[in-house]
Design a protein that fits this description.
The complex is a heterodimer of chains A (about 600) and B (about 625). Chain A is mainly β and about 600 residues long. Helices cover about 0% and strands about 50% of the residues of chain A. In chain A, strands 1, 3, 4, 6, 11, 14, 15 and 17 form an eight-stranded antiparallel beta sheet that branches. An eight-stranded antiparallel beta sheet of chain A has the order 37-38-39-40-47-44-43-42, with no helix packed on it. In chain A, strands 19-18-20-25-22-23 form a six-stranded antiparallel beta sheet, with no helix packed on it. Chain B is mainly beta and about 625 residues long. Chain B has three domains: about 350 residues, TolB, C-terminal domain (Neuraminidase, 6 Propeller), CATH 2.120.10.30; about 100 residues, Immunoglobulin-like (Sandwich); about 80 residues, Cytochrome Bc1 Complex, Chain D, domain 2 (Orthogonal Bundle). In chain B, helix 4 packs across helix 7 and helix 6 crosses helix 7. The chains are: A mainly beta (about 600), B mainly beta (about 625). Chains A and B meet through strand 29, strand 30 and strand 37 of A and strand 8 and strand 9 of B.
Chain lengths: ~600, ~625
């Protein structure tokens, strides 16, 4: 009988990193004339170059004089060691670029869209190393392919996030620790993790490794664009905890409230640890210490505990509540330089689950620092992945799934051997999300009792509106429809994939929803067929998307969600409505009995 | 050839004279056959449906339906598995009717058709969509077809530290769904109704797990308008189509027995048969009546109830007294490979047993499995039936009894007790009373014994331990312990009390069981392993624990590591604290009926295991 903990997962509140302003080129070291600052760029997925509107905010590389050269590489003025680096990029068809950390270690940017088999030279790969002395044909070595293809279509904005640890050297300059790509995250998908570099990759600016170097973007292969360039380096001091004492109270405390209790034991601690007492449960420990703040700034405190607790700084409560120790709870506090009173009360009034306590502090510009002894916070339980694969034929699987923070209970997922997948809400006749890459993580459904009973996408995911796409032309699209407005009639399997069937009483019609890969397997072809002879049929519109923004690439091709995916169709032009709050809705009037559009990302 | 034959005869005769025949066991009569499952298949069985063409369909918790060819393993042991349907959401019930499958998913009763007859499903149609809150414990079971072609479905409560049905409509109910999707609520008060079926009279019975408001496992007859005891889903009795009205406030929660509450709550339905926790299983699952007309078992018309945690099949005999079902349960066959969820009869009268233990654990060590229970036609010496009488019971046997043994009062150990009815999880047994035999009468054919008892109690569970009863060959019963739930005491004649019915009270030269000397020369005298094992078996502890490996509960060696005192172990046996063992999915039931002296002996042995681990190196 496990106690129920309500999960409240709060990520780090802010990654308010340094931003490289793209109002001019002053952040860069002698950029070649190929590099310019523009406002909007766009391209069709088939274009090898961009349509450009001048302005500010986007860094663009364009061929201007014949041939690209090494000098077209863009060096940042930023000389860095350890760094967390993030940016958005856009590639036209066939593009090739890369980001060199310290000018030495390259993460490849490449139009790998739709590729099945990936190498180190594909998007998100860590490029190979090169040594002529190895002899002809054997110069290349190492190099790390990404875990999976998380590359979007040309002409869409993509994101990359790199967590890099610089190599370390002793006083004599001898390397004592290799550089490490701690994480490379492409479009939200973790594709490299803790990869150690034995040396510089091919095309490095320097032949030797060193503690510092400039971020460098490869500009010698073709057009490429960047925006939202942000980074964090770790040279600031962070908070420390000193002068720690504790008081131990015995008994069942359901809440971290001492009340009239008398402490059983008290003492001082060199560092915070729950191991200070032997009891495994039925205790309250009250820790007090001096929080030494080096400089006035925002500090985020992440706590982990099994049971309940409260974190107070200068008497004010921040993190609190009943949690499992793997839940990260965090709060951000603005603190002035100097000493502050730190208090933490931890209670555990039940015997199951590991005794655990951890407190981390994060200041922007400093690494995350534990304030506890490592052994105070045990490792999470190992849980092997249960992956549903769709390697040779389409695979469909029902489950619960989260969509925009809500648990949906009547959901089917389809994985296709093309690498495309989607989730569909059977009650709403609506696409919830669509992704490519690996299919489905069913661990939360099929391990033990499967308590959340949810399944999650394992690839590059685009979240859709989750709404039934058909409306009568004068009517607003409802957020959801009940079973009397849209009657689910099941699905039939055609070409190995489900075709969803509904009765739609508003128009006295039957609806069939076909979702199949397009000809090249690069996106979904969704065909909505209307069956029946309703006078309403001429009065129906298809909502092909709801998005905060809409960019029209050309007639019948729009980019939605920050140019995050394309919708494409042939036929009537779109009507773009303003929706509340501050959104756009793309409608296409239905002509005939059927409407087909594509989703491409 | 001749030579070989004579050697063989010699071998046989040596064998025959060499030793006494071993006591008969379940497997001498009821054989378990294992269907081999392909290694890459996760056949966590949720539903079984036999097909008229000799194939078997199996639905799984991973949402697939597999069709098994050669499930009866007729000419070869090998079976063939073909995937028929996939992608469904935890299919815990499967039926096959007129060439079409019907199954329950968590949120839907679904009809599945192979329209183009290529052996793979291509049409999935909802018959009914159930509401779900998203809690994992809102399981859906069924359907079971009734004779009109309507479908019965049961809906499990959510689990939020207790069973709760208010988040989604009809949770905690048995509902009837017509093929056109019309839903009619039938009966309420269900907690975890994983198995149910309809008997030859058209009455519905379901198996319930011990839990909140459920003192122990049980089977209950569900008529329309019945409330089976757990109020988790009582909110829905307010719906206009509910067959009865009842509110939570009307249900007493005072730890009195359920029959006391039933005197006040009109719709509250008492179980037909209680299954004493830990003895007759720990998680009652499926129930099915033997309608094979003598093919499946020597007990035609009786019921077979499975248990997930203890991986066994039990037998139930029921009779109707004053229009109310009641009867007894008794062990039938243990030793299945995993936790049993489903039982279905095959066309040859054998029983398919579908298993999964994920999330709960089971005595059978496999995560899942598919087996067949086959009777080999030999009839063991067993209790056949127990009928309630105005002054006691009439027990019939499958074979003629040894009259001397049945006339002996010492052949019987009888007592009665009951469980509490309250919102807490489970219950200890309460109001325990030993029952004395006043009179015994044996029928002319020696296959039936009438016993007159001192103080049978209506509504109580009557425990029969017939350890001294022998057949004419001098063999003991295959199963000596049965539990009769006496809902009604019939009218009728009483056994005449005279010399011929007086029980024989033997002054036996009883070998007094030696009391363990707990302190000799200041050192603890260890209870021997043989003594401890005998006690552990007697009190059914071994159903859930083993000396050195995790079964349902922790091993005795692991318990020893906790270094409880003997008295602490006694306290925990009487009032377990499941939170001490968070890694075990199934809670221990209070075992307060075991004599303290026995528990202390066991505790002493357990703690000896701990001491053994610390024995210093041999210095000789």
């Amino acid at each position: 009988m496990k106690k129920v903990f309500y999960l409240l997962l709060l990520p780090w509140v802010c990654w308010a990193q340094q931003t490289i302003p793209l109002t001019d080129l002053s952040a860069f070291d002698h950029p070649s004339t190929n590099w310019t600052i523009e406002q909007v760029i766009k391209a069709r997925p088939t274009d090898t170059s961009f349509q450009v509107s001048s302005g500010k905010g986007v860094l663009l590389n364009t061929l201007r004089h014949g041939k690209y050269k090494r000098t077209d590489d863009l060096k940042f003025n930023l000389n860095h060691g350890d760094i967390h680096f993030m940016m958005d990029f856009m590639l036209p068809k066939g593009a090739n670029s890369g980001i060199y950390l310290q000018g030495r270690y390259e993460v490849q940017l490449f139009d790998s869209w739709g590729k099945k088999s990936l190498k180190f030279g594909d998007c998100g790969g860590i490029y190979e190393r090169w040594d002529d002395a190895r002899g002809k044909g054997n110069e290349g070595f190492e190099g790390f392919a990404p875990r999976q293809n998380a590359c979007k279509a040309p002409g869409l904005w993509q994101s990359i996030e790199i967590d890099f640890e610089a190599p370390r050297f002793d006083a004599s300059g001898k390397k004592i620790k290799n550089a490490v790509f701690k994480k490379v995250i492409l479009n939200g998908i973790l594709i490299q993790e803790n990869i150690e570099m034995s040396g510089v990759t091919r095309g490095s600016l320097f032949s030797k490794e060193g503690p510092l170097g400039p971020i460098t973007i490869q500009g010698d292969h073709g057009p490429v664009a960047f925006k939202n360039i942000r980074y964090e380096t770790y040279d600031k001091p962070s908070a420390k905890l000193s002068n720690i004492s504790y008081q131990y109270y015995e008994g069942k405390f359901p809440e971290p409230v001492i009340g009239q209790a008398i402490p059983l034991l008290k003492g001082n601690l060199a560092a915070l640890t729950q191991k200070v007492i032997k009891a495994r449960n039925d205790y309250l420990i009250h820790y007090v210490g001096d929080l030494e703040i080096p400089e006035t700034d925002n500090y985020s405190f992440q706590t982990n505990w099994t049971g309940s607790g409260v974190l107070k700084i200068d008497g004010k409560e921040y993190n609190s509540g009943a949690h499992w120790y793997t839940d990260d709870i965090s709060a951000t506090v603005n603190l002035t330089a100097g000493k502050h009173k730190f208090e933490l009360i931890h209670v555990k009034d039940f015997s199951w689950g590991p005794k655990a306590l951890g407190v981390f502090v994060k200041r922007i510009g400093a690494q995350i620092v534990p304030l506890h002894v490592r052994t105070s916070l045990p490792d999470p339980e190992p849980r092997g992945l249960i992956e549903v694969k769709a390697n040779s034929e389409p695979v469909y699987q029902r489950s619960f799934t989260f969509h925009q923070g809500k648990k949906k209970t009547h959901v089917i997922h389809l994985g296709d051997p093309t690498g495309l997948s989607y989730s569909y809400d059977l009650k709403q006749g609506a696409l919830l999300q669509t992704w490519k890459g690996k299919f489905l993580n069913a661990t939360q459904m099929w391990l033990d009792r499967g308590e959340p009973q949810t399944a999650e996408p394992m690839g590059l995911n685009v979240v859709m509106d989750g709404k039934f796409p058909l409306v009568l032309s004068s009517q607003a699209q409802p957020d959801s429809v009940d079973a009397t407005k849209l009657v689910y009639k099941g699905y039939k399997i055609l070409l190995g994939r489900p075709v969803y069937m509904y009765d739609w009483p508003a128009a006295s019609l039957k609806v069939e929803d076909h979702i199949n890969p397009n000809e090249n397997g690069t996106g979904w072809l969704r065909t909505i067929n209307l069956i029946g002879t309703s006078p309403q049929k001429s009065n129906i519109e298809v909502v092909v998307g709801n998005s905060p923004d809409v960019v029209e690439i050309n007639a019948g091709l729009l980019a939605l969600q920050g140019m995050g995916y394309y919708v494409q169709w042939a036929g009537a032009p779109a009507v773009i409505l303003n929706t509340q709050p501050a959104g756009k809705q793309v409608r296409v009037p239905l002509q005939g009995n059927s409407f087909t559009y594509q989703l491409i990302w | 050839m001749k030579l070989k034959l004579s050697i063989l005869l010699l071998a046989i005769s040596v064998g025959a004279f060499g030793q006494k025949p071993a006591p008969k066991t379940e497997q001498d009569f009821y054989e378990i056959k294992t269907l081999p499952i392909p290694q890459d298949l996760y056949l966590e069985v949720g539903g079984l449906a036999t097909m008229p063409d000799g194939r078997l369909a199996v639905s799984t918790r991973r949402g697939e339906i597999w069709i098994v060819e050669n499930p009866y393993q007729k000419d070869s042991h090998q079976t063939n598995f073909k995937k028929f349907a996939s992608g469904l959401h935890e299919i815990l019930g499967l039926a096959y009717k007129d060439g079409v499958f019907y199954c329950s998913q968590r949120g839907e009763l679904t009809k599945i058709t192979d329209t183009n007859r290529d052996g793979v499903a291509d049409l999935y149609e909802p018959i009914y969509q159930f509401e779900l809150s998203g809690n994992y414990h809102e399981y859906t079971y069924g359907p079971v077809f009734d004779k009109n072609g309507d479908m019965l479905v049961t809906l499990n409560l959510a689990w939020i530290g207790f069973g709760e049905g208010k988040f989604a409509q009809w949770r905690g109910w048995l509902v009837k769904i017509k093929p056109d999707g019309t839903l009619e609520p039938q009966s309420a008060g269900l907690r975890s109704p994983a198995g149910y079926s309809i008997n030859d009279e058209g009455d519905i019975f379901y198996g319930e797990n011990q839990g909140d408001w459920v003192g122990s496992g049980r089977i209950t007859h569900l008529a329309k308008g019945d409330f089976a005891g757990n109020p988790g889903g009582i909110k829905w009795a307010k719906e206009p189509n509910s067959p009865f009205k009842l509110t939570l406030e009307e249900i007493p929660d005072n730890s009195q027995p359920m029959f006391e509450a039933a005197k006040k709550v009109k719709n509250l339905k008492l179980p037909a048969v209680w299954f004493p926790h830990a003895i007759m299983g720990i998680s009652t699952s499926d129930i099915i009546q033997d309608t094979t007309k003598g093919k499946f078992s020597p007990f035609p018309g009786q019921y077979f109830v499975a248990d997930q945690g203890q991986s066994k099949v039990m037998r139930v005999f029921m009779e109707k007294v004053n229009g109310v079902y009641q009867g007894f349960c008794i062990n039938y066959r243990e030793g299945f490979q995993s936790g049993i969820l489903r039982e279905r009869f095959g066309s040859d009268g054998s029983m398919f047993v579908g298993m999964t233990s994920r999330g709960w654990g089971s005595t059978g060590k496999d995560n899942f499995g598919l087996q067949r229970l086959v009777w080999n036609g030999l009839t063991p010496f067993e209790i056949n039936a127990i009928h309630a009488k105005s002054d006691g019971f009439e027990i019939s046997f499958t074979q003629a009894v040894d009259v001397k043994s049945v006339k002996n009062a010492a052949s019987y150990a009888l007592r009665s007790y009951i469980y509490q009815y309250h919102h807490q999880y489970g219950s200890p047994i309460i109001n325990v009373k030993d029952v004395k035999i006043k009179g015994i009468s044996v029928s002319a054919d020696k296959k039936s014994v009438r016993i007159s008892l001192d103080g049978i109690r209506q509504f109580y569970i009557h425990e029969f331990i017939l350890k001294g009863i022998l057949n004419e060959e001098g063999e003991p019963l295959l199963h000596e312990t049965a539990y009769y739930t006496l809902n009604q005491i019939p009218a009728g004649d009483k056994l005449a009390m005279n010399e011929s019915t007086a029980p024989v009270i033997e002054k036996e030269a009883i070998a007094v069981v030696e009391q363990p000397k707990l302190a000799v020369n200041g050192k603890k005298q260890l209870v021997t392993e043989a003594q401890a094992m005998a006690l552990l078996k007697k009190h059914t502890c071994l159903a859930c624990h083993a000396k050195d490996k995790k079964v349902i509960g922790p091993s005795y060696e692991d318990i020893a590591k906790r270094k409880y005192s003997d008295q602490q172990i006694l306290a925990l046996v009487y009032k377990p604290n499941p939170q001490n063992w968070p890694d075990y999915a199934t809670e221990m039931a209070p075992m307060s009926h075991i004599p303290a002296n026995d528990v202390l002996k066991i505790a002493s042995w357990i703690n000896g295991l701990g001491a053994k681990n610390k024995v210093e190196p041999n210095r000789d």
